[in-house]
Write a structure and sequence with these properties.
Strand order of the largest sheet: 5-2-1-15-13-8-11-10
Order of helices and strands: HHHHHEEEEEEEEEEEEEEEE
Distance between the termini: 53 Å
Strand content: 35-45%
Number of strands: 16
Number of domains: 2
Helix content: 25-40%
Oligomer: single chain
């Protein structure tokens, strides 16, 4: 850890320091106290100020599938087991070196001790069985996911959660429904979106080239509401992109260039863009716009749950080389 920073290296150094002191002192109770102090610094490093931010991000973007969720939990268990294992070995060393029966551990090996521990475990299980899974502090997240494919004008309303949607009350199209199944994702409705467009894209394109094509573009975008996020991507497929120039921050690879805005950008945007596609005369344009407003009015109710609405508009179009200035208007 010293290769990262000196500050980070202090935490394992302090852990080893207190483990070493626990082995050097001869007083058994002092040995036990020093061992109990030793893990504090390593776990303080793990549960630092950034842990809350990381936990919130994991909660909002946690995996939806049961198999993926199980894998993530197994990884967590293995990671924290390995993180804690040196201190368990440290306790074994301290216990062996003390020469006495610390914490009366030998008494728990008897049948009486086994029954006592087993009874305490069952008692805790019975208490937890009657406790609610969520509280005002820990609430279930239910996502009302509405998506619209602007290419086909088709849309879907889907309810998603990492936990069961049972007992969820849904109010849709003047109908009330109570979810009674143990599902984590439910398709509520499919619809056709042929109303006033929420996304208007107007572009001016100038192309030049022979074996490769240079695109000079001016993209004007208008939104009905301020979007939560907006992503504009251009892909050359197997063909490489080069000579990329834009006044906005972008994430560019050999084959794609992606421009992304977060935290509610303005309802009107003007984006200049210049790039070259090697050995090709076309480029694939993809847009994804995420709104907090809902296309289809849906009201969700459930105790101790956060209802998170979102509407995502997606569209893909292939832009081909043109030998003169042109413009197009796209919903």
């Amino acid at each position: 850890m010293l290769f990262l920073t000196v500050q980070v290296a202090v935490y394992p150094a302090l852990a080893l320091f207190f483990l070493a002191l626990a082995m050097l002192v001869r007083q058994p109770l002092l040995k036990l106290l020093l061992w109990m102090i030793s893990p504090h610094f390593m776990f303080r490093l793990m549960f630092s100020e950034g842990f809350i931010f990381f936990s919130r991000m994991m909660g909002l973007n946690s995996p939806g599938g049961l198999g993926t969720s199980m894998i993530v939990h197994v990884v967590y268990i293995i990671f924290f087991a390995l993180w804690s294992f040196p201190f368990l070995l440290g306790f074994a060393a301290v216990y062996h070196d003390s020469g006495i029966d610390l914490l009366w551990l030998r008494h728990w090996k008897t049948n009486k001790g086994f029954l006592t521990v087993g009874g305490a475990f069952l008692f805790c299980v019975m208490i937890l069985l009657f406790q609610p899974s969520y509280s005002d502090t820990w609430r279930q997240n239910v996502i009302v996911d509405q998506s619209v494919d602007m290419n086909t004008e088709s849309g879907r309303v889907v309810l998603k959660s990492n936990d069961y949607l049972k007992h969820l009350r849904v109010h849709l199209a003047e109908k009330d429904t109570v979810i009674s199944t143990y599902d984590r994702e439910i398709l509520l409705k499919e619809f056709t979106f042929n109303r006033t467009p929420w996304v208007l894209l107007e572009r001016t394109i100038s192309t030049l080239g022979d074996s490769s094509t240079t695109f000079d573009m001016m993209v004007k975008i208008h939104f009905k509401y301020r979007p939560r996020t907006f992503t504009l991507t251009y892909s050359g497929g197997k063909n490489k992109l080069s000579d990329i120039a834009t006044s906005f921050v972008s994430n560019a690879t050999e084959h794609t260039i992606s421009l992304k805005w977060e935290s509610f950008p303005d309802t009107s945007m003007l984006i200049p863009l210049h790039f070259k596609v090697d050995k090709a005369d076309s480029i694939t344009e993809s847009i994804e716009v995420r709104f907090m407003e809902m296309v289809e009015p849906v009201r969700i109710e459930k105790e101790l749950a956060n209802i998170i609405p979102r509407t995502i508009f997606r569209r893909t179009e292939v832009l081909r080389r043109m030998h003169d200035l042109s413009s197009s208007l796209v919903q």
